[in-house]
Write a structure and sequence with these properties.
With about 425 residues, the chain is α+β, with helices and mostly antiparallel strands. The protein is about 25% helix and about 25% strand.
Length: about 425
């Protein structure tokens, strides 16, 4: 069989792209090297729903985030994906940080994102348990959290219902492009696969996969983020996402250490931003965990992380030498979707639509398919860290979803 499109990578971007294209009648296959979907960068993110209030205008990232703001909540609601628009507070702790708040307000206004400067009194009306060292804050009401695992899994599951195929434990080892037939044949650990257009959504291995087609224009420079997750009881101490002050014109390496409650009610502290030389096997270390604990207690003195930690975890982000997304085509029927960092979870639906628009130059025809009647998904927790959707079992790979789903189902017993 010759597929229209093959997508390399089963993270949130790959799953969203598979869902978008299969919904247009395009014959798609997704190839994931690991045994389970959402096993790379997408299984170690924060689960934040980020508006992009600090993004650089007229960039791919800013454009995709703007479009995502029109798409996401309707999709979450239709598919009953847990999310909470809890809002975020960017807090200034020193006088020299106050100008950064105004910079954020100005940038958000330029992007048509609602924000509001708060006085110290107004800040403590929202978050009374913050340290009294807080001076002022910017309130971003549209920020929130979403289940970071269930979103890509439902996208993949619905894509299968639309006729897509997914192969896990299928590592891409090389490939050749037939210039006469205008088709690709990839060599994989589960055999050869032939198709018309390749989409590189390989995340942390994006530059490696890119070499199959061309010399990569970007280098993946992995950045590790460590997190602490606390018991639900700690959520009484924080209701918003607490952000440190950042300058939109400054470094985009990290947004700093955050404190927030997940959609399941666990409080998360993190992430760090550490450059590392590896692409797998991220783990936390005691020294960094202790630093996160100290930072959390500085911000919310009543928070008692010691004795309330239910998990620590570390994720890797596919950072590159560029701040912006790397999305472009090659005349060899190849689409690159690389360098998608912390905003990928939020922007995935919009990124998928952008990729879809790029297919036009390769002559891939969007064929209307018989409308699949929308139905209420049958979702059941199966134990052993897995969820069953319409009879299909998926292993939970993200710590936020794993701990939250397990606790939520225990409470029903």
């Amino acid at each position: 069989m010759v597929y229209d499109v093959a997508i390399i990578g089963g993270g949130v971007i790959g799953c969203a792209t598979l869902h978008e294209l299969s919904g247009q009648g395009i014959r798609c296959i997704l190839l994931e090297k690991d045994d389970n979907l959402v096993s790379g960068a997408s299984c170690g993110n924060s689960g934040l729903y980020h508006l992009g209030f600090d993004s650089t205008p007229n960039t791919l990232e800013a454009d995709c985030l703007q479009e995502a703001r029109q798409l996401n909540e309707e999709f979450y609601q239709e598919n009953e994906i847990p999310y909470d628009r809890c809002g975020a507070l960017m807090v200034a702790w020193k006088r020299e940080e106050l100008p950064m708040l105004q910079e954020i307000v100005d940038r958000a206004n330029a992007l048509s994102i609602e924000v509001k400067m708060l006085t110290k009194y107004e800040l403590f009306q929202k978050e009374p348990k913050l340290s009294t060292d807080a001076l002022a804050a910017v309130w971003i009401p549209g920020e929130g959290v979403v289940d970071p695992w269930l979103l890509p899994i439902i996208l993949a599951h619905r894509a299968i219902r639309q006729g897509a195929e997914i192969r896990t434990a299928c590592k891409v080892e090389g490939g050749t492009f037939d210039t006469n037939k205008r088709t690709w044949t990839l060599k994989t650990s589960s055999g050869a696969i032939t198709f018309k257009v390749c989409i590189n959504a390989a995340g942390l291995y994006g530059d490696v996969v890119e070499e199959i087609c061309q010399r990569s224009k970007f280098d993946i420079r992995p950045r590790m983020g460590q997190f602490i997750m606390l018991k639900k009881e700690a959520s009484n101490d924080v209701s918003s996402i607490i952000l440190p002050p950042i300058s939109p014109s400054g470094s985009k390496i990290t947004k700093g250490i955050l404190i927030f409650s997940t959609v399941w009610g666990n409080v998360v502290i993190g992430p760090t931003a550490e450059k590392v030389p590896y692409r797998t096997g991220a783990v936390t270390d005691a020294e960094t965990v202790n630093k996160l604990i100290s930072e959390a207690k500085r911000i919310i003195p009543d928070l008692k992380p010691e004795g309330n930690i239910v998990a620590t975890y570390a994720g890797l982000r596919p950072a590159t030498q560029f701040e912006d997304y790397q999305i472009y085509t090659n005349q060899k029927n190849w689409i690159t979707v690389g360098g998608i960092r912390s905003t990928g979870l939020t922007a995935c639906l919009a990124i998928a639509k952008r990729v879809s628009s790029l297919l036009n130059e390769f002559g891939v025809i969007h064929c209307p398919i018989e409308t699949i009647q929308k139905h209420k998904l049958s979702v059941r927790y199966a134990g052993k860290n897995s969820v069953v959707l319409d009879g299909a079992e998926y292993k939970i790979t993200h710590p936020i979803s794993k701990i939250g789903t397990k606790a939520a189902n225990k409470s029903k017993l």
